[in-house]
TrEMBL record:
Phylogenetic placement of the source organism: Bacteria, Pseudomonadati, Pseudomonadota, Gammaproteobacteria, Cellvibrionales
Pfam families assigned to the protein according to its UniProt record, in alphabetical order: PEP_mutase
Domain of life: Bacteria
An MF annotation (GO) of this entry: lyase activity
Protein known as: Isocitrate lyase/phosphoenolpyruvate mutase family protein
Keyword Glycosyltransferase: no
Keyword Lyase in annotation: yes
Keywords attached to this entry: Lyase, Metal-binding
CDD domains: ICL_PEPM
Length: 278
């Protein structure tokens, strides 16, 4: 990652429209989003885990995760942020070492969550990351799982989210991520209390992205939904072929072979990585 890549990503959170980050899981999904005009990319930890045959929730070996990230970075010409769940450790120093490795690979940002842990632990992880980076720029998007864990949007939940995000902001986070918050009114109240850019996960029934931007939300993402939707189609087609013996749906909406094999979609053989990442 260069300073320009980080500045580009940071600026996307300050524009005159909401940043919508497509959530990817491998080199092919990164290339598809890039080819249709994405400004930046973000992984879904669940989608990356499932794509490699592991369950979500800390089961993915770090070595395999790093391999997947390297393959994504090999083809990406735009900023990439990585979801690392809780950092795969309760040890802030170990988490910081992982994040430093990611920064060395070329990522511009991370998502790191409090999950079922204490907000104090996530603050320690954020401070440890900042110390390990020694002033190097990295966009830390601190995720709080208050709404996901409680399954409601009560006033108590909103108050706790505000307190947690204030702690994460003071610890060195660049942004706050609140998956499970769907209320436009509560999002607006939250944005008035927190000065760092806020990120919500788009879910069914929510208002349009433009309305959330007006309410003060600066970033929206989809989580694992693109993976689930894509593989639902693959699952359906596979059943047609293997069980129903009706394979014709496979040919209904294929991506063109020449497009998938073109320089628009794939890197030229032998092209140096630095051509795209410097």
């Amino acid at each position: 990652m260069t300073t320009d890549h980080f500045k580009q990503f940071e600026t996307l959170h300050q524009g005159n429209q909401v940043l919508i980050l497509p959530n990817i899981w491998d080199a092919a999904s990164a290339l598809l989003c890039q080819a249709v005009g994405a400004s930046a990319l973000a992984t879904s930890s669940a989608a990356v885990a499932w794509s490699l045959g592991y369950a979500d929730g800390g089961s993915l070996p770090v070595s395999e995760h790093l391999g997947a990230i390297q393959r994504i970075l090999r083809v990406s010409r735009i900023p990439v942020s990585i979801d690392i769940e809780d950092g795969y450790s309760s040890d802030p120093i170990q988490v910081a070492e992982l994040v430093k490795t990611l920064s060395d690979l070329g990522v511009v940002g991370i998502n790191i969550e409090d999950g079922n842990g204490s907000p104090q632990l996530l603050c320690e992880k954020i401070r440890s990351i900042r110390s390990a980076l020694q002033g190097r720029s990295l966009f830390i998007n601190a995720r709080t799982d208050v709404y996901l864990n409680r399954g409601n949007e009560s006033e108590d939940s909103l108050s706790e989210v505000i307190q947690r995000l204030l702690h994460y902001q003071n610890a060195g986070a660049n942004g706050g991520f609140i998956p499970g918050l769907t209320s436009l009114a509560k999002a607006q109240r939250l944005a008035k209390k927190i000065t760092i850019p806020l990120n919500l996960m788009l879910l069914p029934g929510m208002e349009a992205p433009t309305q959330f931007y007006t309410a003060g939300i600066r970033r929206l993402s989809y989580g694992a939904a693109p993976f689930q939707s894509s593989y639902a189609l693959f699952n359906h087609l596979s059943k047609d072929v293997l069980k129903n013996k009706i394979p014709f749906g496979i040919f209904d909406h294929p991506l063109d072979y020449d497009y998938l094999n073109s320089e628009v979609f794939v890197l030229e053989r032998g092209s140096p990585l630095s051509e795209y990442r410097d």
